[in-house]
Write a structure and sequence with these properties.
Structural class of chain B: alpha+beta
Largest sheet of chain B: 5 strands, antiparallel
Number of helices of chain A: 7
Strand content of chain A: under 5%
Shape of chain A: globular
Number of strands of chain A: 0
Order of helices and strands of chain B: HHHEEEHEEHEEEHEEEEHHHH
Number of domains of chain A: 1
Shape of chain B: globular
CATH class of the largest domain in chain B: Alpha Beta
Largest interface: A-B, 21 and 20 residues
Radius of gyration of chain B: 21 Å
Number of helices of chain B: 10
Oligomer: heterodimer
Chain lengths: ~150, ~290
Amino acid sequence: MASREVNLERIRSAVDRCCKTEAECKKCEKVGCLIGYCQLTLDYSIQKRSFRIPGGSRHIPRRDFKAYYQSDLLLALAEVLLQCQGCRDNHEEECVINVTRSALELALLGESLNYEGSALLYLMQVNRLNPDIGKELMQLYEKNKPGRIPEA
Amino acid sequence: MPAIEIPGVAGTSCAQPPGYIIMFTTLEYFQISGKCRRCLLGQVAGIIFKTGVRRVGDAIFKQRSGVLGVGIVSKCGLLTPAQLAGLGRLAETTGCLYCKMTTRQTLIFLIPSDRLEELRKGVAALGLRIGVFGEIVRNVKACAGNKDLCQRALSDVFNLGGELQERFMNRPTPRDFKISVAGCHRGCTDPYCADYGIVATGEDTYKVYLGGRGGSRKPVHGTLIAEEINGEGVVALLEVILKTYTECAEPKERLCNTIERVGLERFLPSEDFLEKYRSREEEDFLSFVGLEG
């Protein structure tokens, strides 16, 4: 569950960059596509002003096996993790941030990890599963952390 | 437990449902209360201990220091500015020593015993009421769950909490029965430790936990018995639960102990029942993303 600091528009922009567009896909599958599902979910949340997506985790299109651009997915996933409120024991599966994370994770890793309500714990999990992706994701997460002074 | 009729007392000026015995915890309270209650003392004192009579009444307690502690109940702890200011004036005019906000979201006034009637009238004039205690449904506890008070609230808990309190508070039960409503799964009002705990999961979507017990040496977590039901379903389910509890419980048996003895199955609502009150929020989402049906 999220609170006031969440910027869903930032996540939406990052997710938009993952979209392969009709130029590559020929026809947009919308809700049948992991990225399309993220976009619709975020739009629903923004429009309803609610962080909860009823049944959102259950309806993720797990049969979308398209290959996305890894660099875009990593940037989007890092943005999602930066917006995560770190609810730990109060983590909610149907939180829009979690639903988006789950869909992006599936596109990036091809499998689902158990999210424990903490971005750092998640980064460690990803690192254990795939050290290369884990390292890159951690670097992006650290680089884009609010308050960090950009390198000269 | 057999109910005992006391003609001319219960159900009249005591404002209790007919057929229930009323007993107050302290003799002092009988002495300071109205005519009806003095009458009640005279009529039933001889049989109280033989029948295991219910202990119910207003939340008015003679304290060791000699003053009266009077519990005042609002709608789930909400007070309007006018009520708050009125209570302040009332505290001064009734000689209140000080006030205490309780864990059940009531407000205790500590007043001299001869000022009770004055306080009673003042409280009623402010649209508030004197609390209740004993083997009954207690006042409803609700978190700061609405759009003004909490960033995380998924629902306006005061609507549902207020309705539950209005409808069920003071209803006789085998043992004290506590209801708690929370606006999200974080459960700031400990709904997982209430006899009937309600957790909002959407604007009009709730989970219900049954048989919890807090504030004891042996705290018990309630069990999830219904999810994805609307507020109307929460109210309807509570009616059924209270009926089953009254039928199954032994005298003075707390709900968690009844469940342990007779099994949770007796209390589980059927799918047909729940279906009538299913929230349609998921359908709304599916319709939005184009996944209807």
